[in-house]
Design brief:
Length: 408
């Protein structure tokens, strides 16, 4: 409407004045409702062309977005493993700090496993203490075998000496018996030494390994017990939390509730601009928004980030080829808006829906010499046309309460 009124002031109005003042035609006589098109055809045509051109220029260089939302994330309250709730520490809509406990699962099975692991550790310690006694016994057996071996060798040596002097005193059969006894004592000594090595190996490797396995099982059970208590990972408010002792919690099928972080979505808005605005929307671009949560207010914003991809074009591999005609909705350019001054967007709840207008500015490019010539002459006027959208968004801010409270 503003563009049409402005265009009419410099097209239809001069044409009408020329017809009436210069040609002497009178409104209601020569200029009637039926002769308006013929009499004012040049002014009407020029007004239509100029209005369409102004509207195109304004909405291209100063794009608007009807879908502006302060998106925020939520954290599902889940346990690592399914289980039955034993104790609940918080209530719905309660504010939590990071590290506060939320609920605890039944840990009887884990506590039994921990007790079993402790028993196995105690059994391994007792076996190590017993093995120390076995080492002492094995060492004593070695000393006894060595002593018996020396005795047998001495007996063999003495009888062999007597035999060498007088073969009739000591028979060969007696010498063979003594030699066999020496071999038996040597075998007993080897057996005693092998027994000692076996006990030492058991003390050095087998029993410590058994104890380490029991200790690992104990640590696993204690870890499961610790994981049975679910803590808040960030500051936030608990929502949709109706958990009671005895309920079953499953990390896949049944979460316990939702934790809404305090700072998520506060002071940040995501605006969806049309694809035709892709060459214009840039970081650092000034914008204004008006929200239903803050009626009759227009908040100055700045574009802090522009998503480099359009969400409607994303592709996920499936067992079917994609059919593009099924995606009829055109994608939008997603831009992130933040207040120019901190605190200006306070009081707007995360998730609020707003409307936004962005304003192009080419002053820096003109000063830097990037834009010269006729374009440098025209661009300041194009930037000034943003006042039309500024008036529009202020009109929306004024009419929004009336529309929301009366006409809906």
């Amino acid at each position: 409407m503003l563009e049409v009124l402005f265009s009419a002031l410099i097209t239809i109005l001069p044409d009408y004045l020329y017809r009436t003042r210069v040609e002497g035609k009178r409104l209601g006589h020569e200029i009637t409702l039926f002769s308006v098109w013929y009499e004012l055809r040049w002014g009407i045509t020029a007004c239509a062309v100029l209005a369409i051109s102004l509207i195109s220029v304004i909405f291209f260089f100063h794009p608007s977005a009807k879908n502006v939302v302060s998106l925020y994330r939520t954290v599902s309250i889940l346990s690592d493993v399914p289980g039955r709730v034993e104790e609940v520490y918080v209530a719905d809509n309660q504010r939590l700090k990071a590290g506060d406990p939320i609920f605890r699962l039944d840990t009887r099975r884990q506590r039994a496993a921990a007790e079993t692991a402790r028993r196995r550790m105690a059994e391994a310690d007792a076996a190590i203490a017993m093995a120390a006694s076995e080492i002492t016994v094995a060492e004593g057996n070695i000393l006894s075998a060595e002593s018996a071996l020396r005795q047998a060798r001495d007996d063999l040596a003495r009888r062999q000496e007597v035999h060498d002097r007088n073969p009739n005193v000591v028979s060969q059969q007696e010498l063979d018996t003594l030699a066999a006894a020496v071999e038996g004592r040597e075998g007993a000594l080897k057996s005693a030494r092998a027994q000692l090595e076996m006990v030492e190996a058991r003390v050095a490797s087998v029993l410590p390994a058994q104890r380490a396995v029991a200790e690992a099982a104990l640590n696993q059970a204690l870890t499961e017990i610790d994981k049975a208590t679910i803590y808040a990972g960030t500051d936030g408010t608990v929502k949709q939390f109706k958990l009671e002792p005895g309920d079953i919690v499953n990390p896949i099928l049944r979460p316990a509730g939702i934790l809404v972080p305090e700072t998520s979505g506060v002071g940040r808005f995501q605006a969806a601009f049309g694809q035709i605005s892709a060459p214009v929307v840039r970081r650092g671009m000034l914008a204004e928004i008006t929200c239903a949560a803050r009626p009759l207010e227009v908040i100055p914003m700045v574009v802090t980030n522009v998503q480099g991809t359009i969400a409607s074009g994303q592709l996920r591999p499936t067992d079917q080829l994609i059919e593009l005609q099924d995606r009829k909705r055109p994608g939008t350019i997603l831009a992130t808006l933040e207040p120019v001054y901190p605190g200006q967007a306070d009081g707007i709840p995360p998730g609020s829906r707003c409307a936004a207008v962005a304003y192009s500015s080419h002053d820096k490019q003109i000063e830097a010499g990037e834009i010269t010539g006729f374009k440098a002459f025209v661009m300041p006027m194009v930037d000034g046309m943003g006042i039309a959208n500024a008036i529009v968004i202020r009109g929306q801010a004024l009419l929004l309460p009336v529309w929301a409270l009366v006409f809906t």
